């Protein structure tokens, strides 16, 4: 199903109804609680910050990095054509081949929710050069008045946690440190339906910081970050994926994504997004040629 505006969060977009409804179901999912660093207690997760906007399944001749750079990518086109879009986070699961596949989930979130301010990546180059407020922008992207307001807010415990989470998001989505990203991005898989062999190979509800085991590549552009997860970079992951690909028509898998909190002010953890892979028929993958 297609809609005119892929960023209409009240519509399904290219996401089928069962996938879209799954993005609302966080029952049984637990993330690190406010006091986790002291007592290791996890709490029930809240609804995700990001909305699932679209899903693509591509077939390629080789591993395909940075699908948002493709001139025909519909999300990239919408980003280019509309200035007031939310921030886009694309997660590209790269299945080794041959044949090679990219399963790409696109998430969107209001920039002020993520960063506490509007990211400069959403502003065109001409506006970047002219500071209409006459205020300098510091290395975190804050203008002078915003920096003062942030310091004022930090005297309130709740606002300290909010500011810490915004800072975490700013470093992850807008920063330059890929090692930091590798150490914070995690997924929590849940096998909803599937053969016992797959369930045994992929433990449900067990968090995995993939960047510690797999090669991850990051590509940033105006208003987006694309994370490419090279599943073929790890022997165990490659073998598990072979089992899953063979059973893909019988699998229903939920993937929860989050940023791992390591500082007390970053707690409790927030769920970023959810997507559901529903009985994938890989023969229907869309061919994607490198440009």
Gist of the model:
The chain has helices spanning 17-22, 36-39, 74-81, 111-115, 125-129, 144-153, 157-174, 178-184, 196-201, 235-246, and strands spanning 30-32, 42-44, 51-60, 87-95, 100-109, 185-193, 215-221, 224-230, 252-259, 271-278, 286-287. It has 291 residues and is an alpha+beta fold.
> Main sheet: which strands, in order across?
7-8-4-5-3-11
pLDDT averaged over residues: 78
* Percent range for β-strand residues: 25-35%
Low-confidence stretches: 1-13, 121-133, 139-143, 149-156
What radius of gyration results from the CA coordinates? 19 Å
Q: Looking at the chains present, what oligomeric state does this protein adopt?
A: single chain
Shape: globular
Number of discrete helical segments: 10
Q: What is the first-to-last residue Cα distance?
A: 26 Å
Q: What is the number of strand segments?
A: 11
Which structural class is indicated by helix and strand composition? Answer: alpha+beta
Helicity range: 25-40%
Profile the largest sheet.
6 strands, mixed
| Helix and strand sequence | HEHEEHEEHHHHHEHEEHEEE
What does it look like?
By secondary structure, the chain is α+β, with helices and mostly antiparallel strands. The chain has 10 helices and 11 strands. Strands 7-8-4-5-3-11 form a 6-stranded mixed beta sheet. Strands 6-9-10 form a 3-stranded antiparallel beta sheet. The N terminus is likely disordered.
Topology diagram in text:
Elements: H1 17-22, E1 30-32, H2 36-39, E2 42-44, E3 51-60, H3 74-81, E4 87-95, E5 100-109, H4 111-115, H5 125-129, H6 144-153, H7 157-174, H8 178-184, E6 185-193, H9 196-201, E7 215-221, E8 224-230, H10 235-246, E9 252-259, E10 271-278, E11 286-287
């Amino acid at each position: 199903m297609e809609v005119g505006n892929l960023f209409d969060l009240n519509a399904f977009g290219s996401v089928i109804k069962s996938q879209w409804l799954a993005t609302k179901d966080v029952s049984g999912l637990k993330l690190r609680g406010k006091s986790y660093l002291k007592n290791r207690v996890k709490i029930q997760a809240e609804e995700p910050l990001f909305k699932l906007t679209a899903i693509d399944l591509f077939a390629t001749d080789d591993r395909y990095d940075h699908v948002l750079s493709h001139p025909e990518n519909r999300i990239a086109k919408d980003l280019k054509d509309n200035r007031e879009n939310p921030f886009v986070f694309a997660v590209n699961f790269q299945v080794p081949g041959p044949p090679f596949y990219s399963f790409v989930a696109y998430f969107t979130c209001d920039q002020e929710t993520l960063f506490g301010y509007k990211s400069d990546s959403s502003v065109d180059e001409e506006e970047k050069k002219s500071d209409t407020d006459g205020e300098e922008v510091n290395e975190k992207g804050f203008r002078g008045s915003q920096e003062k307001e942030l310091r004022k807010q930090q005297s309130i415990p709740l606002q300290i946690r909010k500011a810490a989470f915004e800072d975490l998001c700013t470093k992850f989505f807008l920063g330059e440190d890929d090692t930091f990203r590798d150490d914070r991005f995690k997924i929590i898989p849940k096998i909803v339906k599937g053969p016992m062999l797959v369930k045994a190979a992929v433990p449900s509800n067990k968090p995995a910081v993939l960047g510690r085991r797999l090669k991850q590549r990051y590509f940033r552009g105006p208003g987006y970050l694309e994370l490419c997860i090279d599943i073929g970079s790890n022997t165990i992951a490659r073998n598990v994926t072979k089992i899953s690909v063979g059973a893909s028509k019988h699998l229903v898998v939920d993937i929860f994504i989050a940023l791992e909190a390591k500082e007390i002010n970053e707690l409790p953890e927030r769920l970023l997004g959810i997507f559901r892979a529903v009985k994938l028929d890989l023969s229907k993958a869309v061919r994607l040629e490198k440009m």
